[in-house]
Amino acid sequence: MAPSEHASVLEEGTTPVPETDEGEGPEGPDLPEAEAVSGGARGPLIMRSGRAAARARAQKIADGLAMDAIFRDAGLVLLGSDPVVETMALLREAVHLRVRMLKKVFEGRIERLSPARGTVSVPPPTLELLLATDEDRRPLRLDGAFAAALWRSDADVGDIVQIDKDEPIVSIRRDREKAEGRVQEERDFVYRLRLAEMDRTRSAHRVPLLGTGRLPPPSLDAMRETDQEVTERLTTKGTRLESGVLVILDAERLPEAALALVAASVTGPGAPVVFLQTEDETAFTAWRRRFEDAVVVDATD
Questions:
Q1: DSSP 110-138
Q2: Residue in 37, 17, 40 with CA at minimum distance from that of residue 28
């Protein structure tokens, strides 16, 4: 199926957008732990709070650091046959290759998304959205792989996104406060390819990016070495390795081996920022003893 059938403009033409006062834009996080995290934490951020409060707090910090925030339930680790392998997959969701190239894209702030997040239990086969910039608005319909790519990106109303016109790749531009120009243009396209997605995907258009088609080696050090080799080969192409924020909800459910992997994964180049959330006082107390370099947040105080 042609790519244009997946990412299409619903109505031709543009709608002029009147000039408005954009204000000064959102402020960065004023939370005390933000400074510690941005300074390069040597341990995870352990948080005793409800799930909703943890999500809001972590998202605010991630936005201030211009990082993507990935929220995953600890129960996912228990679904697989090997908790360590499943935990590694979660950690690799929060590290990505940042790829930059000139491409034809749709770019704008999402003003409408249908179906809305939270209203469906499975990724929808078709998404309709309205993208707006300071010059125009365009309704789009995304089908198949394009809809899946936007849904996986966690993009929502209010986010500025770039959608590749030819390939199912979506990038959230958290480094921008407003969308400028026309919605459909040839732009400097910056997108992030998660290492976990690289591990899962072995299609033809991914192989040149990876350099090899093999699965990642099992040890953390070996995986980092392979990731660094790939990054060095792609440096001249405008690609680099970047870390993000991983929030593990109800993390008291993680087995000991998974916690040990988290402890080893939050240091070194390309390490993600990891939040462990719990409402369990016993688990929280144990984490405080275990992770001596952790950033501690007790929202119940």
A1: EEEEESPTTS-SS--SEEEEEEE-SS-EE
A2: 37
Whether residue 218 is preceded by a cis peptide bond, meaning omega within 30 degrees of 0, is no
Element (DSSP H or E) covering residue 78? helix 75-79
Residue 250, Cβ neighbours under 10 Å: how many? 17
Cα torsion for 286, 289, 290, 296, to the nearest 10°? 90
Q: Among 176, 136, 182, which residue's Cα sits nearest to residue 17?
A: 136
The pLDDT tens digits for 65-116 are 778 788 999 988 887 778 888 888 888 888 877 777 788 889 999 999 999 9
Residue for token digits 């870390």? 243
Is pLDDT at 284 greater than 60 in this prediction? yes
CA distances from 287 to 18, 48, 54, 242, 293 (A): 52, 10, 16, 27, 11
Mean per-residue pLDDT, 194-209: 51
For residue 148, pLDDT over 80 is answered with yes
What is the structure's pLDDT at 219? 59
Report which DSSP code applies to 5.
G
Q: Cα(131)–Cα(143) distance, rounded to whole angstroms?
A: 16
104 CB-near residues (< 8 Å, 6+ apart): 164, 165, 166, 184, 185, 186, 187
Q: State how far the Cα of 296 lies from the Cα of 285, in Å rounded to an integer.
A: 10
CA 220 from chain centre, in angstroms, equals 21
SS3 97: strand
Give residue 80's identity as a one-letter amino acid code: G
The amino acid present at 92, given as its one-letter code, is: R
Element (H, E) at 193: strand 184-194
Q: Return the structure tokens found at 265.
A: 């994964």
Instruction: Give burial (CB, 10 Å; 0-12/13-18/19+) of 136.
Output: middle
